[in-house]
Amino acid sequence: MDEALTMPRFRMLVVLENAGPTNLAGLAERLAVTPSTATRMVDRLSASGMVECTPDPADGRVTKITATAAGRTIVREVNARRQAGIARIVAAMPGGDQKALTATLWVFTEAAGKDWAAPAACAAFALPGQACCRP
Questions:
Q1: Residue 61 — very low, low, confident or very high, per pLDDT cuts 50/70/90?
Q2: How far apart are CA 129 and CA 26, in angstroms?
Q3: What's the rounded Cα separation, in Å, for the pair 75 and 29?
Q4: Would 67 disulfide with which of 16, 19, 48, 116, CB 3.0-4.6 Å?
Q5: CB 68 within 8 A of CB 49
Q6: Using CA atoms, how far apart are residues 88 and 101, in angstroms rounded to an integer?
Q7: What does the pLDDT look like over 73-94, one tens digit per residue?
Q8: H-run or E-run covering 51
């Protein structure tokens, strides 16, 4: 990643990629940061062309923050590299251990209360003959 793209800023891009256009208050809440911190992050990402801020057509007092094509590309590239690395590791594991790992990852996902293991992300963990990694 570009040295200007810190992990917190990358996380902001991920949130915008998943949530779509979001106002500053909603973005700060999703990231569990103060609005002033979110503003600084947005300013830096905007200056680097990774997000854009536009007036909300429904309420001109509100600004919508959106990941640009460049920001979305970075998120997809980083995720693809991570998934490829994880897939290599999982592929090197014995079959029984692969099944145990994928079952554990689903328990972890459900405990977190998030459905972040979408089919595309899950494909990195798919075992032969499985459409997804959910046991």
A1: confident
A2: 40
A3: 20
A4: 16
A5: yes
A6: 14
A7: 999 999 888 888 888 888 898 9
A8: strand 51-56
Q: Give me 13's structure tokens.
A: 């891009």
pLDDT of residue 124: 52
Note the helical H segments in the chain.
7-19, 24-31, 35-47, 69-91, 95-112, 119-122
Residue bearing tokens 């959910």: 134
- pLDDT digits 0-9 by tens, 93-127: 898 898 888 888 878 877 776 555 555 555 555 55
**Structure pTM?**
0.72
State how far the Cα of 80 lies from the Cα of 75, in Å rounded to an integer. 9
Note whether 53 and 12 are within 8 A (CB): no
Range 27-56 average pLDDT: 94
**Which tokens is 20 given?**
């779509």
Residues 6+ apart with CB under 8 A from 19: 26, 30
Give me the phi and psi of 132, to 5 degrees please.
-150, 170
**Residue 66, strand partner residues:** 52
